Amino acid sequence: MSSWTIIQQSLPMFGKGFELTLWLSFVGIIGSIIVGIIVSLLQYFNVPGLHQLASIYVEVSRNTPLLIQLFFLYYAFPVIGIKFNAELCGIIGLIFLGGSYMAEGFTGGFNGVSKGQLESGKAIGLSRWQLARYIVFPQGFSLSVPAMAANIIFLIKETSIFTVIAIPELTNTALDLIGMYYRSNEYLFVLVVGYAIILIPLSIILTLLEKRVRYGSFGN
Amino acid sequence: MDHSGISVLFEGTNFERLLGGLWVTVKIAAVALIVGLILGIVLGVLRTFKNRPLRVILRLYLEFFRIVPTVVLLFLFYYILPREMNFNLPGDQLATLVFALWVAAEMSDIVRGALISVPQHQRESGKAIGLNRYQLYRYVLIPQAISLEIPATINLATRVIKTTSLLMLISVMDVINIGQQIIEANNHTHPTGVFWVYGLIFLFYFLIDYPLSWWAKRLEKKRLERANG
Question: Which residues form the ABC transmembrane type-1 domain (chain A) (predicted)?
Answer without folding.
Answer: 18-210
